[in-house]
Design goal:
Length: 501
Amino acid sequence: MRSRLLVSQRSNRGRVIQLTHLEVQTGLFINNEFVEAKENSTINLDNPATGSHLATVSTAQVEDVDKAVAAAQVAFRATWRTTLPRQRRNLLNKLADLIERDAAVFASLEALDAGILYRDSVGMHVPAAVETLRYYAGWADKVDGESVQLPSGFGYTRREPFGVCAAIVPWNSPLMVTSWKLAPAIATGNCLIIKTPELSPLYGQKLAELVVEAGFPPGVISVLCGLGHVAGQRLAEHPDVWKLSFTGSPPVGRQILATAARTNLKKVTLELGGKGPSIVFSDADFENALMWTSAGITVNNGQICAAGSRIYVQDTIYDKFVAEFSARTRDAVAGDPLLSETTKGPMISKTQKDRVMSYIQKAQDEKLSLLHGGANEPGNFVPNTAFVDVGEDSIIMREEIFGPVASIARFKTEEEVIHLANNTTYGLASAVFTNDISKAVRVSDALESGQVTINMWGAVDANTAFGGYKESGVGRDLGKEALDGWTQVKAVKINVLAPKV
Ligand code: NAD
């Protein structure tokens, strides 16, 4: 049950200078074994850059999810529950080392099935995943409770794992987002079932191999490729799953929350995207602001929950900024994400491309002013696109497009831009560009947003909480805050008896 994939890499303007073959397991990973799904259910994967068939992998049915949950429950109760924190630390560190060793393989797999640029994956996503595993490995023996004085004597609290937990992962940066959930879940002593995205599951097939090599006991980590409404839904409603962490679209997040409310009240954390404002004041370092705002809406084709898709520029520099932004972002080298000269990969799928193109069409129907882009290119490619003078009520200013489409608008005052930036149901990530430290602090205090970056965009770090205000989500990934989401508190109270005389 392996699939052989051809990787053509590191060409120099079309000349392929390295060809390699990768092999990945195609089965479901349960109890440290790769097994077929019920009735041999499979899904075909296409390469989003070429449309050609890539691999066929098993897809979990309800019964397969139940098997993984049962295996996790056995593992938790038999051994994992009492595993020493330092053993969990060592296993996470080992897994981090192995992912680092195989960084090129992961980057190739993410390029092949998710359309992520190889250089972005190998340079950012894989190192971020490695760092996240090491960060939480360091926490494994530091998740402590408190001791408290009581009328009866004293008591103490323990932070205990939930037991069997689930992670549902999106396709846009799958290895990195998986690490945000796997690392704190395992550090705190849970068993985890990872439902990989059906559009880009190959990284998970490789990760599963490394789980065995790292030495995790059977049942502690399961990896299931599966459809959202089948495997994802089963995890959401399963009575023996007590915590579920989800990253993806708002409608599915709401559905998972409703399912948890209807079933066993499992704890749910949700990361549901955003409509991030990038605010450029006229006193900002112009070149720096240009670099980050350009990256904020073009990296990974804008398929990033923290994308800076609304760009507000102060009126005195507006025209110059718009001209330079266009010069910097309008031309990209679209092509095979494995090749070094490519600066723009494909959208993940035709569905996603059609969705983005429909927003471009709506903007044109609204007679918005197109700065550049907008053309319907062949295959799954969407050109970097920007509209200027976009009004507050325009659909492309309000809704998450998840594509390389920038909505640019001018503002005059600090007060006005704070109102504009907060005029959204989302609240995940914002960026402020100014050389005035007091203004930077005032504006970041006023922004309704789980993250504010000053004079940069993005910057997701393992040691800093990441998650949304308002409808961008519930709970936090990353930082020490995530540990709270993977543990429950038990209070132990001791009645200190008087000596018997
Ligand atoms: P999605 O929400 O449909 O899928 C995300 C994950 O949830 C996948 O693993 C999917 O299999 C699973 N899922 C789908 N339906 C489910 C269900 N009923 N129960 C449980 N799990 C389910 O997202 P998508 O279709 O991949 O993308 C659609 C839109 O979602 C995008 O255009 C974008 O706006 C948004 N999105 C946001 C993020 C983010 O990082 N916040 C990531 C990916 C997509």
